[in-house]
C-alpha cells in the first residue's frame, strides 16, 4: 500500500510499511514463540540479536545530537542497550558475552544501520520501527513470555520503560516529533523506503531464528516422544 502524499511523516511510515509489517508478524518464529510452542532459549536467542541491532542504532544516534532536527528524536528514556545486557546476563549467565551467537541476518541488519543512520531520514525510519514497536507489540511479547514460559521481571527488562509510565502519550509525542522534522518530499520518500527495508531485515532475522529454534524444539520433542 502506497502512503498518501498529503499524510504526515508518521502516517506515511505507518501506511507505507503495512505489507512488510504483516510479513514480519506472520513469521513462524514469531507465531510459535508467542503461542508458547518454543522455550526460553528461543527468546534468549532473540535477545542476543537485539543487542547487536541496538548497539548499531544507538551508537549512530549519538551522531545526530549535533543535528538540530535529529536531536529532537533522541530520548534517553528509550535507550535499550543497558537493559538488553542485563537480560543477557540473566539468560546466559555471567559469561554471556562468550555464549551469545550473532546470526548472519543480524550482522547484515546492524551493518545496514551503521551505513545509513547518520542521515536523519534513515535514522527516523529505523528509530520509528524499533522504538514504537517496543512500546507497542513488544509489550505483547513480554506478556506472552510471562504467560507461556514463566518468566518474571529478570530477563525481560528490555520491554520495561521505567521513565515512560504511560506508553500512549509518549508514542503520541514521538509521532509529533517525527512529523515536526520538516523532511521534504525526497527525504520523506527515503524514510518510508528505509522503514520498509527495516521490516525486511527483521523478517530475515526471524526466518533465521525460526530455522534454528523451531527445528531444535521439534527435534527435542520427537526425541522424547
UniProtKB/TrEMBL annotation:
<keyword id="KW-0349">Heme</keyword>
<dbReference type="GO" id="GO:0004392">
    <property type="term" value="F:heme oxygenase (decyclizing) activity"/>
</dbReference>
<keyword id="KW-0479">Metal-binding</keyword>
<dbReference type="Pfam" id="PF01126">
    <property type="entry name" value="Heme_oxygenase"/>
</dbReference>
<keyword id="KW-0408">Iron</keyword>
<dbReference type="InterPro" id="IPR002051">
    <property type="entry name" value="Haem_Oase"/>
</dbReference>
<dbReference type="GO" id="GO:0020037">
    <property type="term" value="F:heme binding"/>
</dbReference>
<dbReference type="GO" id="GO:0042167">
    <property type="term" value="P:heme catabolic process"/>
</dbReference>
<feature type="binding site">
    <location>
        <position position="128"/>
    </location>
    <ligand>
        <name>heme b</name>
    </ligand>
</feature>
<feature type="binding site" description="axial binding residue">
    <location>
        <position position="21"/>
    </location>
    <ligand>
        <name>heme b</name>
    </ligand>
</feature>
<dbReference type="GO" id="GO:0046872">
    <property type="term" value="F:metal ion binding"/>
</dbReference>
<dbReference type="InterPro" id="IPR016053">
    <property type="entry name" value="Haem_Oase-like"/>
</dbReference>
<feature type="binding site">
    <location>
        <position position="14"/>
    </location>
    <ligand>
        <name>heme b</name>
    </ligand>
</feature>
<dbReference type="InterPro" id="IPR016084">
    <property type="entry name" value="Haem_Oase-like_multi-hlx"/>
</dbReference>
<dbReference type="GO" id="GO:0006979">
    <property type="term" value="P:response to oxidative stress"/>
</dbReference>
<feature type="binding site">
    <location>
        <position position="175"/>
    </location>
    <ligand>
        <name>heme b</name>
    </ligand>
</feature>
<protein>
    <submittedName>
        <fullName>Heme oxygenase</fullName>
    </submittedName>
</protein>
<dbReference type="GO" id="GO:0006788">
    <property type="term" value="P:heme oxidation"/>
</dbReference>
